[in-house]
Structures are given as C-alpha cells and as structure tokens.
C-alpha cells in the first residue's frame, strides 16, 4: 500500500496534449500499479505493499446512459495521467427540490427544514436519507459541508453576496483569444465554496454557451487542467468523477474506492449512488461489484448499502462486546473471520469506532490498525486500515489525512493525482483542512504549502498553493 514502490516514473506530468480540441494528452508510459508509495506514520509503519491486482479489462456498460457521461465514450487513460474530457456535473431541471416544497428553495441554496421522509426513520436504500448530524433537517451535507441540493432540485442563478456574472466574465476574458491567463482562472476558482462554484458554472454556461468544464479542458493541459477541472465540479460532482476514474478502463484503482466510499455517511452514499446513476446511467453498486471479488466485494457492498448506525451516543457495553468480537475474529483464532470484522467497522458509527480504537489497545495491547495490518492483506487490509486509522488519534481522520498527503509526496517521484485529489477534497471543509495543515506541520516539521512547492512547478504549483492558501 503506502510503501509500494513505483517504476517507470509514475507521477511525472504527462506529455503535452494533441492539438485536437478536447484532448487530455498522451498517457504516460506507465500503468497504475495500485497502493501508496509512502510514508510511515510517526509511530508505526503503514501497510506493506498489497499483492498486485490483475486488470479487469474494459468495463461493459451497465445500461444506457441517461445523459452523456463526463468523458463521453472515450477510453480511460492509465491512472496517474489526466482523465478524458467530461461533461459538467448535473443539469438544470424543472422539477422541485428533492424532498422539499416545490420551487421554494433553489439549487444554489440550502433547502429549508422539512420533516423526515414519510414521518419515519430511514432504513431502506432508495428512499431519501435522514439528515446528516449537524446539517439541520433536510440539509444536504457532503464532505462535512453544506452543498447545493442535488438534482432534481431546481437550480438558481444568484446567491446573496456573490456576483457570478463578474467571475464568469473574468474567466471568459482569461480564455479569450490567443493564450490563456491561467493565474486569473486560479484566482477566480480557488476561493469559491460549493454553492458559489455551482452558480458560477451555470452562469458561465448561460453567458458563453459552453460549460465551464469544457472551457477548462480546452484551454489548459496536464495536471493544471486536472486540478482545476476537479475543483470546478464541486464536492459531490468531484467524488462522482473520481469513482468513475476508479472503475473505468483496465484495472481498478483501489485507493480511490477506499477514500471515496469508506467511512461515508448514509446521506453521502445515497447522493453518490443517485449521482452516479444520473451522470453515467449505471448502478454504482453493480459497477463496483464488477471491479472486485470475493470478500472485498462483500466489504464494499456493506459500504454501499447506506445502512450505518449514525446514533450520536455510544453504548459502552456494545463497544466492549465489539472489542472482544474483533479480537476473537482476528488474533484470537486460527485464521481470520474477515466478514465479522468488516461487519463491525463498516456498520458502526464514527463515534463508536473511535471508542473501539481507544479500548482495543487497552484490552489487547495492540492498536486496532496494527491488528488489521497483522491479520489482513491486499485491498481489504488497505480499506480497513483506512477506517481504523481515521478512528485513532483525533478520531476525525485528521492525522490519517495528513499522513496520506505526505505519502503522495514522499519517495521516488510525486504521486501527482493523489496529491491533487487529497488537497482538493479536503479543502472544501475549511475548518478541518486547517486542522490537517496544522497536523501536517506538527508531524513533518514543514508547512503543507512548502511541501507542495517542493514537488510542483509553474502554474500547476500556483493552483495547488492557491487552494491551500485560501483556507
């Protein structure tokens, strides 16, 4: 996983794109090999490299797309190279907001309070999820921040205190004529929150007659293009896009599946499944199932079921029972009962797993993450380690995410794509990203900005630094 070594210059910027419109550029000469190259955490070693997963080959489409996917029907380039062009996330719809009174709340603003769907708690997938803790009744939350209610909510073109026409015109001027003012685009996009980004994208398309994403793809290239396109999609659109990257083409990118699907709230899983179906015309659970096998497939089926316990309180008696069950399923028996361990770590609440992570070493003198390293291998080990490491330390994954950022930069060559999506995904939650940056500096005696500056150059460097400095 994190100590996996890369050959053939993985992480090097891809060559310049071909001259035809919409080309991302030629793929680099290497293929994705899986895992992280990286960094031992301060107190223990990250996982040993997992066995190489054989490529699954091109995926057969599962049903006809409901609308053109991000990348049309172009083949997916190897992981580590910028992706093919994609169409913008979502589209205007005349329908009222999902689960809210018709046409009273726009797509660009948080929905109003509303009762639970049907007046009952949610259990079955396919019905609207219960509101995330802290989001307010009916609020759309993703990556820990409010987001515009996904389609079929009615979009709006204005937000109080934000002038999308000004920013849209600024981008139009930066991309008009010969040459591109990349710095103007970076300065325009970096400060925006999810609502502002959504309104800007829709305003730009209305003013210019072309989506913001297509403009960025046409005017930019290489890792700068990838960074700003991912940023322009917003939190939910970006994660849907990354899931497509993880499963499209030859091989499966396990790190993306781990980071996008594991440890998510029921509401987030609902939005990902609905959004993936809307954008790509495929069932996400069926797509992921086609990429995996055996018990790892069952683990991700649990994650995609959207059935986690999200009670804010912690039952300490159940915590102690789970600690003993985990021990008996792992170190306490010959062989490992993988499904029993998965069942606990993928169904319990974050607070409950944090309590397990605190109690397990007190009872059995080994950390939860170290137990997983000892008992598992391959992709299942990496996924469960990702969950366990988030629960240890601060319990919010701040230490883990700081370590993952360092893992993307440490060793032979920079793992550019990992560095980009970890920075972009974390930056949406400004408060948490500030904690990650502080943790990074405490662990590695340098600022995240300085580390990124040492790994990147040119406008690509300015884009990532601009995102970091906005927090």
Automatic annotation (TrEMBL):
A single cellular component GO annotation: vesicle membrane
Keywords, alphabetical: Annexin, Calcium, Calcium/phospholipid-binding, Repeat
UniProt biased composition (Low complexity): 61-74
Compositionally skewed regions (Pro residues) per UniProt: 39-54, 75-100
GO molecular function: calcium ion binding; calcium-dependent phospholipid binding; phosphatidylserine binding
Gene3D superfamilies referenced in this protein's UniProt entry, alphabetically: Annexin
Source organism, top-level taxon: Eukaryota
PROSITE patterns associated with the record: ANNEXIN_1, ANNEXIN_2
Record flagged with keyword Protease: no
PANTHER family attached to this UniProt entry: ANNEXIN, ANNEXIN B11
Family statement: Belongs to the annexin family.
Domain notes for this protein: A pair of annexin repeats may form one binding site for calcium and phospholipid.
Protein name, as recorded: Annexin
Native source species: Kwoniella newhampshirensis
